[in-house]
Amino acid sequence: MHDRPANAIPFDHGRRRQTVVQVILTDIFHGRLRAGQRLVTEALAGRFGVSHTPIREALIELHGMGVVDLLPNRGAVVRAVTPRDVREVCQVRKLLECEAVRGAARRADRRQVEALDAAIRQLAAAPADPAAVARARELDSRLHELIRESCGNAFLAAELARLRILFRTFRDVTWDLELARHDFHRLAVEAREHLAITEALLAADPKSATRAMAAHIRSGVTYWTRVTANLTGSAAVTSSAATSAAATSAGVTVPGVTARA
Questions:
Q1: Domain membership flag for residue 2
Q2: 231-242 tens-digit pLDDT
Q3: pLDDT confidence band for 102 (50 / 70 / 90)
Q4: 123 and 245 both lie in a single domain
Q5: Which of 28, 137, 167, 200 could bond to 208 as cystine, CB 3.0-4.6 Å?
Q6: Which domain holds residue 245?
Q7: Which of helix, strand or coil describes residue 39?
Q8: CA atoms 222, 223, 224, 228: torsion sign
């Protein structure tokens, strides 16, 4: 096991693996790790200051997400992420999230939904700037997490939790690309989509909730496919915002990022 700095703050095993997964995903979607590039366990363990075990577990998880191949005699290799991959991810997400929101329409805590609805309306009225984007990410996570926890199906909730990092990393990298162009129009679009969902939840209307969620996921395909356009372009966006956020949340030290729990 690699020695960690004496002042490093400990973090739990599960979060350590999740952080490695999120940072590698971010590097892949930003084009800092290219298709065909090997992911060497020893080098990654040194980068994150952890043992080989969470690195191997993270690579297995990334393989399960379809972004890394595990090849005999070559180890882990980055896969090419194509527009078809994005469409297929969104198709699966639509099926899972629509079923989850259908159940949540009958079970979600009304006070929590009302609080989210109010926060989204407040965000929609605020100036469109990077701070609003950070708030939009937070509210998006809260809404989808509330739906997951309220769906009434433990297996479905577990599957959404398993894919949560993939979904959020696609979202965050897409926002990084938008921010690089100073394009904030997605804020208003997403607010309307989220409000359609919260209104259906408050009305305890499963059909309307399902339609609103389906529209939200379909809209996301347009933005998520920009990730693949970025990967095939001449230059990758080099924002480290998502990497920093991931490391900070788990107390991991990565080159160029100072993280505290």
A1: no
A2: 665 333 333 444
A3: very high
A4: no
A5: 200
A6: 13-30+36-79+239-250
A7: strand
A8: positive
